[in-house]
Amino acid sequence: MRSLLLLLFPAALAAQIAPDSPRLISPHGSGGLGVHWVRSDAFPSDEGALLVTWAMPALPDGVRLRAGAGKGAGGANAVAAGIDLQLPLRRSAKPWALELDWQTGLGLSAGDYSIITLPVGLTGGVAWTSGSVWFAPFASAGLAADLRLGDNAPAKEFSVDPTLEAGLDLAFDEERRVVLRAATVWGERQSLSFGAAVGLGRIRR
């Protein structure tokens, strides 16, 4: 596995970033193309990173790709990539009704050592519309299982962490051409992100 990562990311294996934090999955739309600045504290000396999420038209509904790069532990470059899966559990057309999604995926981080991450959890959210303003807070809770590989990996190769995330989507046009997104994650995978997405999805009349 480490040989494969060295081949794919020859200049990036000098740090570490979490591949799944933040998840940025909401029942009211997690698709489209999103670009986010992330400040992560999951590893010592983490700095800023750029996260891109993309639900390609060719992919099935509820499937999204993610990729990130930035400064990880020690201030050196690091990379991460993954796939997100999202399945609706509860939908409602009523205002302020709670909607639920099940979520999982698979993430890979390349740094001082390699991390393969399997997250699972539930995401809930509500939405409010007034004129052209759309406001949709959401929250997620679950678990993230990490398999750590490589010569510099911690002695504990496998770990499972609880995850708790809260976020907000905000748009100022009825078509939601551009949606502002922010999220924060608490606990071992803590992070803070700000960004925007186009073509977020799930526009209802």
* Number of individual domains: 1
Residue-averaged pLDDT, rounded? 84
CATH structural fold name: Porin
Largest sheet: 10 strands, antiparallel, barrel
- Rounded to the nearest angstrom, the distance between the terminal CA atoms is 48 Å
Fraction of residues in H or I helices: under 10%
How is this structure best described in words?
The chain is mainly beta and 205 residues long. The chain has a single domain (2-198), classed as Porin, CATH 2.40.160. The chain is 3% helix and 55% strand. It has 1 helix and 11 strands. The protein has a 10-stranded antiparallel barrel. The longest helix has 7 residues, at 2-8. The protein is globular and about 55 Å long. The model is unreliable at 1-14 (pLDDT under 50).
Summary?
The protein has 205 residues and is mainly β. Helix content is 3%, strand content 55%.
What are the SSEs and their pairings?
Blueprint lengths: L1 H7 L24 E8 L7 E7 L8 E9 L5 E14 L8 E12 L3 E12 L2 E3 L2 E17 L8 E14 L6 E9 L4 E8 L7
Summary tags:
11 strands; 10-stranded antiparallel beta barrel; mainly beta; Porin; 205 residues; single chain
